[in-house]
Specification:
This protein is an alpha/beta fold and 195 residues long. It has six helices and seven strands.
Length: 195
């Protein structure tokens, strides 16, 4: 068996500029999974498999389904999941999450993919979340730019920040969910599905 350390994935992500969850963000997420006895997780945006590995490692009876559209990242995630010997807990799908339909229901859905599509992801997979289940969204601070976008003069980044702000408003106004925002990592929202 390959003995690989999670730090090597963190290092790889840093060197290759692959966005993975910040340390306090992933810690918050894994603690939430532990404390709320979460068993069945859907992740939108696998990247290199880092957060799926961290979530599955919480307990051996946790199942993670994760979706990644980028083929290169998907292949790397598959390799990493195998290296951590977690392929019996993690199912990874190479597809655009907006174009696939899943039948099962989940305790937790983790959205960490294309920021501009967050509302679409939320609405699409709402039917796959059980009542009292939770949707966790990452990157809502977007490196501090959501609070203050004067730090960037890039038009695309400004557009993206606008879309994240719109998503935050959407969460605040969504009466089917109770959302709490946390200033952890790169900004996290926890939205609990109401009865």
């Amino acid at each position: 068996m390959v003995h690989i350390r999670i730090e090597s994935l963190e290092e790889y992500a840093k060197i290759n500029n692959i966005p993975i969850m910040q340390k306090d963000g992933i810690e918050f997420l894994t603690n939430y999974i532990k404390e709320n006895n979460i068993k069945n997780i859907l992740e939108i945006g696998s990247a290199i498999g880092y957060s799926a590995i961290k979530m599955a490692s919480v307990k051996s009876d946790i199942k993670v389904t994760t979706i990644e559209r980028d083929k290169e990242r998907y292949d790397l995630a598959v390799k990493n999941i195998n290296d951590f010997n977690l392929n019996n807990q993690i199912t990874i799908i190479n597809a655009d999450a907006l174009f696939i339909d899943l039948d099962e229901t989940f305790d937790l859905i983790f959205i960490d993919a294309a920021k501009a599509q967050y509302i679409k992801f939320f609405e699409k997979f709402d039917k796959n979340l059980k009542v009292n289940g939770v949707i966790v969204s990452d990157n809502l601070s977007f490196h501090g730019l959501v609070l203050d976008d004067s730090k960037t003069h890039n038009r695309n980044t400004k557009q993206l920040v606008k879309k994240i702000r719109k998503y935050i408003e959407y969460l605040k106004e969504n009466k089917s969910y109770k959302t709490t925002f946390y200033a952890l990592g790169d900004g996290i929202a926890v939205s609990i599905k109401m009865e």
